[in-house]
Give the backbone structure.
Amino acid sequence: MAEFETEDFSDGSDFEEFLGFEDVDEAEYFDDEYEPIDRELWLRHMFVNDDEEEEDDLGEFEGFQANWKTDNYHRNLRSAFNRTPGVKLDLPEDATPLQAFEKIFKEELWTHLVTETNRYRDQVEQTPTRAKTARWSPVTVPEMKTFIGICMGMGLLVLPVRRDYWRQSKNLFRTQFARNMSRDRFAAIWRYLHLQDNQAAVNRDDKMWKMRWFLDYLLAQFQALYEVDGNVSVDESMIKFKGRLSFRQYLPMKPTKWGIKVWVMAESATGYVTNFQVYAGREGSGEKGLAHRVVMDLARPYYGSHLSIYMDNFYTGVGLLEEMRTHGLYACGTVRANRKGLPKSELLRKKASLNKHEYRVAQMDDLTFCIWQDTKTVMVLSNHHDPTETGTVNRRKDGANRVPVVVPACLADYQKYMKGVDLLDQMVGYYGFQHRSKKWWRRVFFFLLSVSCHNAYIAARG
């Protein structure tokens, strides 16, 4: 929940300077031909300062709150998540992760992998500049399953290079892989493994065209297999890749600093991935910002469900949370001090000089804002928490054991539910298939294979 050190920025509004009316031709607006009107009342309706409260009854705007308030809070009512959590497909009560995995990697997918792998080998062999590969036979579905199973096994038992898994002369490297597939056969399938016909008429402007079918298919299976419990987190995961790639990212704060970024929405309690996007660079005009687009895209399947989404300060903003509320989505997250629309009171700014574990709360319409002094100043924004509710977080006191500290409910829930993607990264990192490849899409493929295994485990566990 640590915040980046940032400076306060103006929202760019010069509206107050326009209220002098030196250049306004009053005769143009107060002509004798028209019925006399109250000049002061007319000016108040035409030009309303953002820092002034309009007390008049404005009809359709009755009840609209234009400014943040720090007392006389109104109750912020919320609805419960309206979908049924848990497994959505028919699975036995004592189902194994393999049975759940078969609901994701169906025969349709295995057939697709086999077809494209064999097709790619034929296309390569027709190229005059390439030497032909001896003793090749088309891959079958059982062989492809064996190949993928060996790749999973390589994630469990990590050896320096792939050929070590077939060594029989040294007991240290002796495995049973050779009984299932020869080293040369594995190398041949590895070479021609493919997901998309290179000669097909596809949208080449889509940087993910080499695996677009696979991404769409896998996402559909994730959402069809399991329903989250109503609390999810949105964050980015990194797939390690240091080769040449136009959309390779550098995130210095991540354990994996160089690679391919994946936007992930995962269940907070289990890390089950319910939606994801591989980031391939800027899309469209980006009028509302990258973070705004990413969150709304990931949350689109849950419009109207009252899903609660937790995110860090890269995503959170007043405009985003207001739009999410209109789509029946709840959101909460830490927020940067220079975001537009936050309270302007000095008592609610980042440099408010609060005592240790002291907090202050403000409210505007459905938005609740809190500032809390921990080791650093923490600012949280929510569109569904009641400003009067509180919770507890555990903090060390004088270097001793952890003790509960009272904080606003939005901050307590943020700490509780902002862990789904981190949990996913932890679980996938234990057994990830990390063998090198110059083809970027293979790294994405094996990352999503690991995610599929994790999702299958969560679904089988119930």
Observations:
- Confidence is low (pLDDT under 50) at residues 1-65.
- The longest helix spans residues 440-461.
- Residues 97-204+440-461 form one domain.
